[in-house]
Amino acid sequence: MSEPPIYVTQPHLPPLEEFIPYLEQIWENKVLTNNGPFHQRLERALCDYLGVEYLSLFTNGTVALVTALQALRIGGEVITTPYSFAATSHSLLWNSIKPVFVDIDPDTCNLDARLIEQAITPQTTAIMPMHCYGNPCDVEHIQTIADTYGLKVIYDAAHAFGVKYKGESLLRHGDLSVLSFHATKVFNTFEGGAIISPDAKSKKRIDHLKNFGFVDQVTVVAPGINGKMSEVSAAMGLLQLDYIDSVLARRNEIELRYRAALADVEGLSMLEQPSDTKGNASYFPIFVDANYPLSRDALYQKLIDAGINGRRYFYPLLSDMPMYRGLPSAKPEALLAAHRVANAVICLPIYPSLNNEQVDRITELIVSL
Which residues on adjacent β-strands are paired with residue 311? Predict the structure, then answer.
């Protein structure tokens, strides 16, 4: 009998019997959305867990990115990474903003802060980096540039739930940070997201924008959107928080097992773990170079044929997609590191219910050629 397929990630699902009482409460109080009691509880609980003061829940991370740009009244050009999920740059287009791609640092897969200044023009209004795979961007360097040129910084922190940098939440950096709570993420609410704000005034504006711009039943102050999280999703988030520490611990165990098994494989490399960062093992990418016996795509196919559904994450680059490849900043010769990484990466499965025998089967397929 063949092994069942293994995917890059699977959502952590708490026991169904623990979720039923939450659903019964929602049915009893008949509040399904619009800042209900579970929504309010989850916002407070996440602030406490993440070590932040102000957080606004959203229906998903993409709407949160779109709203974050609107909240800061961003326009013109925004410097961003070509190595990310489509939502990062799509949120710019939804706001009629021109993305300006800057190459990545291959050692971190993050936007290369050393290249940002040369991309700044009179039309630049903001920088929108992503903490790729949960690895912190060069936040100090980026903030120095932003302060020098009067730019805003919005972090796509979709991978960075619970990550601590130099002892404090990574989400405290920048003007705003945006989280995703999609089912594939470390922490999920089925679908969901959040914006981390630095102060009460910013949170208030964001909360207006995510509710059509309403202040009260008759007062509308902005052309907002419907970005509210439902009570069912918020209840799921509250239950997930009961398990998050064990989820993160198991993900880190799997990462260490991968690293030990693949450390000496010629032609494969892995990202270094920063000593000043407490990560979340949100993804486990490996990078295949010419010294490995198979090409990246051949190894990817070998895993697929064995029921191991790895992912070339992120391939293709955003700058190669039809809606972006005509931009001057999308030229391949300006994004050499990003192209090398995108053509080398495979993210291996990592999620709490992945057992050690499955991890070992994956690594044996990679090692034994």
Answer: 347
The string of pLDDT tens digits covering residues 256-310 is 999 999 999 999 999 998 999 999 999 999 999 999 999 999 999 999 999 999 9
Interhelix angle 231-241/16-29, nearest 10 degrees: 140
Architecture of domain 16-241: 3-Layer(aba) Sandwich (3.40)
How far does the chain reach from its first CA to its final CA, in angstroms? 23
- Cβ-based burial of 63 (10 A; exposed 0-12, middle 13-18, buried ≥19): buried
Nearest to 86 by CA among 318, 313, 315: 318
pLDDT tens for each residue of 2-52 = 577 898 888 889 999 999 999 999 999 999 999 999 999 999 999 999 999
Domain extents for the chain?
Answer: 16-241, 244-367
Please give the angle made by the CA atoms of 54, 82 and 311, to the nearest 5 degrees: 90
pTM of the predicted model over 0.90: yes
Q: Are 112 and 103 in contact (CB under 8 A)?
A: yes
CATH number for the domain running over 244-367: 3.90.1150.10
Determine contact, residues 154/128, Cβ cutoff 8 Å: yes
